[in-house]
Amino acid sequence: MPQAIYVQQGEAIDYTPGSNVAAGQVVVQGDFVGVAKQPIAANTPGALAVEGIFDVVKSAVTFTAGVAVFWDADGNPVGGTAGTGAATTTASGNKFMGFAVAAAGETATTVRVSLRSVESTAHETVGLADLADVGPVTYTAGKILVADGDSFESVAVSGDATLGSDGALTLNAAHQEQAVLIPIAALGAGADLTATIQFAHPRAVTLVSVGYLAAGTDFGTIDGGNTSVFAVTDGGGNAIVTKTYNAGTQPVASALNDLGALDGTHKVLTAAETVSLAITNGATAKTPAGYLVIRYIPTNA
Fold this sequence. Notes:
Blueprint: E1 12-15, E2 26-29, E3 32-35, E4 46-49, E5 52-57, E6 68-72, E7 86-88, E8 95-100, E9 110-115, H1 121-124, E10 143-147, E11 152-156, E12 161-163, E13 169-171, H2 173-176, E14 178-184, E15 193-199, E16 205-214, E17 228-234, E18 239-245, E19 256-258, E20 268-269, E21 275-281, E22 290-298
Antiparallel strand pairs: 1-4, 2-3, 5-9, 6-7, 6-8, 8-9, 10-11, 12-13, 14-22, 15-21, 16-19, 16-20, 16-22, 17-18, 17-21
């Protein structure tokens, strides 16, 4: 026996209703929308048109030419009986029936429709979710498709970077951060370091912290009358941070000494802007050799 036998053209299909069907009545079978072109008595073979141009009763919405038309089985037709069914532009909960071939205003009683439910968008349109190797996709900004062994899944970038909806990949601040250690010579009792350029970067940077890593133990005698002052300034001579060691605030030998909170404005440097360090020691205060430790985050530009 053949696997398929030609029956008829596809503009109409055979239909035997369980109850009387009036001429022009819209009939829905699953996702299939047809129209009876003439009356069909109950339990009597007839036919439904599934292609063609029809003027269909509509709800109080505006149609533009070419817009998808859906059949709302309990919709309220303009000028008709509420709840008896009407064409609408709302897809949710309704059945695709075709496309408007002409505009129809909100108060119009009908819309001219090219009946095409046989080409239902629910069955003819292929999306990512229809592919066997792609899992459900929620289209969340910043997510990417990643193979998980037997399919692709939409997952967020995690770890040391974030991904924006525009595709821009940004390293988390902790991994953007860089550090530099700049050697500083020892200063004897009462000796000073005049403001001297220690750092610059070809890109604009934001300083995170500035510290002094003491490589020795001899700070001499630091007290109220013999202080040791570390002053860090930008290229315009503005104070980025100043730290004063005295009787109550002593530096820690052989350790990294943080110089304190940075000025919110002047810690932001333009490209190639310099950073200078000055050290002023009292008569008995000393500074062992060490390193100026600068943590910073450069811009991407």
